[in-house]
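Predict the assembly for these three chains.
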Amino acid sequence: MDHFLTEDQQMIVDLARQITDELVIPNRARYDETEEYPLDIVEALAKSDFFALFVPVEYGGLGGGCYDLVLALEQIGRGCVGIATAYAASALGAYPIVVGGSHELKSKYLPDIATGKKRAAFALTESNAGSDAGGIQTTAVLDGDEWVLNGTKQWITNGGQAHLYTVIAITDPSKGARGASMFVVEADDPGFSCGPKEKKMGIRCSATTELIFRDCRIPKDRMIGRQGTGFITVMKTLDKSRPGIASLGIGLAQAAVDESVTYAKGRYQFGKPIIAFQAVQHMLADMAIETEAARALVYVAARHIDAHPKDMSKASAMCKVKATDVAMKVTVDAVQVLAGYGYMREYPVEKMMRDAKILQIYEGTNQIQRNVVGQELNKEYT
Amino acid sequence: MLIIDTEACIGCGLCEDNCPFDAIHVEDGKAVVNDSCTLCGTCVDHCEVEALSIARDEKEGIDLAAWSGIWVYAEYRNGKVAQVTNELLGVGTDLAAQRGVELAAVLLCGEAGDIPQQLIAAGAHKVYVVEDPALTNFTDDSYGNAMEDLANKYKPEVILAGATAIGRSFIPRVATSLKTGLTADCTDLAIGEDGHLHQTRPAFGGNIMATIMCPKHRPQMSTVRPMVMKANIPDANRQGEVISEAIAPERLKSRARVVRSVLSEGEQLNLSEADVVVSGGRGLDNPEGFKLVEELASLLDGAVGATRAAVDSGWIGYPHQVGQTGKTVASKLYVACGISGAIQHVIGMKSSETIVAINRDPKAAIFDVADYGVVGDLFEILPRVIEKLKERRS
Amino acid sequence: MRIVVCIKQVPDAKDVRLDPVTNTLSREGVKSVINPYDRHAMEEGVRLKELYGGTVTVVSMGPPQAQAILREAISCGVDDAILVSDRAFAGADTLATTYTLSQAIKKTGEVDLVLCGKQATDGDTAQVGPGLAVRLGMPYVTCVKKITGVKGQVLSVERMMDDGYDEVEVDLPALLTVVKEINVPRFPSIRGLRKAKAFDIPSYTAADIDADPDQLGLGGSPTWVVKVFPPEAKGDRTMLEGSLDEIVEKLAEILSDSAHGA
């Protein structure tokens, strides 16, 4: 459906589509199989300014809005959610600096992120702190001019591949949520290391590791924002990044629809292409309807966020839930339409189904997103 | 330019239908030519009312009679004469006979040894030899200048060279310096009734053949595709004259210098010389499908070939590509699996002795060059044929 | 380093096929693209610029529609683009083309390096690069698969040969023709696309490049295309027919006999 994109937005879509069709799709099966980090594709995206897209103009970026990034990520996600995650993780890792960092911190890091020379990662989750961010145990203690970090982060996307990590740690255990602060840790800081790459169900090429801080010493000025603002920065970061996950969902759902319809037209049973059977036809119709509906919500949410940056929580959570639930359902149905072939690794839909699952989990589970929507409703109706 | 007689033109559209370049269209009932026109003359031939003609400036040409003899550049590198040189001496023998002139080979090298005798045995009446240490390694400056100086001195009417890495590199330099025409990668050469050399080559991505002439300039120059022309049977008793030539030292100075030559023959796939080639194209659908081709090739002790489409899809490496931009093969048996027969592929394999084509599309152009054709599903046929051949083997 | 890259607009080879009924090239839906080899020349130019500084200018001789590929070149990182376009250039063979291009390149000023694709996929002559070098008075190296370094005014390259490769040093200014192995061309960039959209491409006519009319187009071309025809078909082929088993049996026999005879 026509979403009346501007000429510039259409150009971003076309370029992302070209890179997806010519580089991502031909290589996705190999990367899924080898579980290697898709460095060549990430570098190609960098050369084409996709890392500049989410960095403000004054720091060497293109200052693209939420909508621009959504459009780009939708295309790349249509090709491979794993590769798209390897790219999007840098945006997520950079957002804390964008939303909470000082001018000095931004000037130091953002220009290199914009060119892709440096990749970023966002480090929140720990073994006892996922959905409940209050359980964070990593600590940061000031020692002279340095912060000393101790603790372990878990399941960090871009672990081992990023050059800088935005990390939340407790700076004042007595203050609860207000006692957390965010820092920038560089990959070669003393006392910092990454664990081995985790083995995952889907998005296998994207790197996921533990981050280990053992008396990791960083200069004082690496704190993002003021002390105690860590949670606020995390919340703002995730509000900003979730439409990106939603866009991976609609890209993936679209890819599943494309594969399913093409297959159903070419697969003959009982002398007819299976698309001629109403049972199949209705499945395909529902898949397409759900995908279009989700896309419309994601686009509207992105435009809303660009227009009302202070009021993004609900729109962001809503579109993340809808688009990723749709991606899950549509990819499961795609495997059903392709049936035996769909279950085989030779066809791309089984990978799509495996990849879809993470979208309902990471950057806040869909259950947590529903909490956010519910809380916002509660506020609105007082 | 193309002249359109708008009085005569009846707007029938035959020109438009036949133009290979989308360069002529009927607008308001009359033919109109656009910038894509290459003046190939196809429309002129098809026009039934003689409304089209090509006007060429009848400029004063050079004195064609002053140029005589057929020359073959004898490619010599790392102690070996290239096979294409013998093929050129083969076709050169015919051309020289038709023109009633001599056939000469030109050898540029550090040390000639008995190469001139080999060239005479292969058909040359004369061999011009330039021996100079500066010619030990191939460089475009030194080889180009030497060839140019010899051509200016002896004025041959035709210069042929192999369309090899060396020939295609320095021969254009010679043609440009001599301000004459050069036709690349010819697959057919003949002397026309007009006495000119008619050079035929695949054009437009190899989809059509074009015959090209160089009627007002000399020498007429061509590079010729290897494995297309027939060499003479070498005759050690054939007599010929060896003429040593010296080129001015400053003309042999090169602004490019070869530091080192790295031979990688061992790694090279000997597709061009294989007796059996089994090739696959787009019809194999995916890398798994392509494995059937590899299996069949190995059963027949053959080499594996591929179309550009299969190579571009990453199913197999570029060294396996057969066709216009790949290798030319002249195998005893060529099996084309799932190959549509786009001419850029056909050009590289049609000289094979027996061609077997399997394709699901009965109208596929590959059947036009095939000796045996099978219309059907590769995935049904190939596995069974492979089984059958295994049975026969055991 | 001031680098000029010559590019040509060609029909996308993937789309071109012969219409079996009319025996003409079917051009329905044939896109015009940058000659694939020229993409690699462009990429190498941009890489050299990124490594050693300087500028990259693309030059294309062709009809006004060739503006499209020059814009695409801008979107892929080249700095400047020039179209060389005049009806007087029509019908040019490689000799006339090299004259025209050399006049245009001279017009742009001093050049350190000219890069061309090995050949264009519509003509496959591989003659324009070497011819252009002669016209510009430059040394050249063809089929370059790697540029290994620049030392002062000397460029080190590797050129493909039929039996391996040569390491060659060439004095600058020089011209290189490149093969696909030399690099992987980049995609356009968002900034590049925005720049390309607004870019005003200058167009040089025959008069602009001080060309001698006798050396242009058809009149300046010593070679004449006198005939264009479809390649011949083999007459006497046997189609194997019957049941699948019968076909397989016959086919196995033919393959086995022909391969055995070989």
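DSSP finds ten helices and ten strands in chain A. Strands of chain A lie at 120-123, 139-143, 146-157, 164-170, 180-186, 192-194, 208-219, 223-224, 268-269, 272-273.
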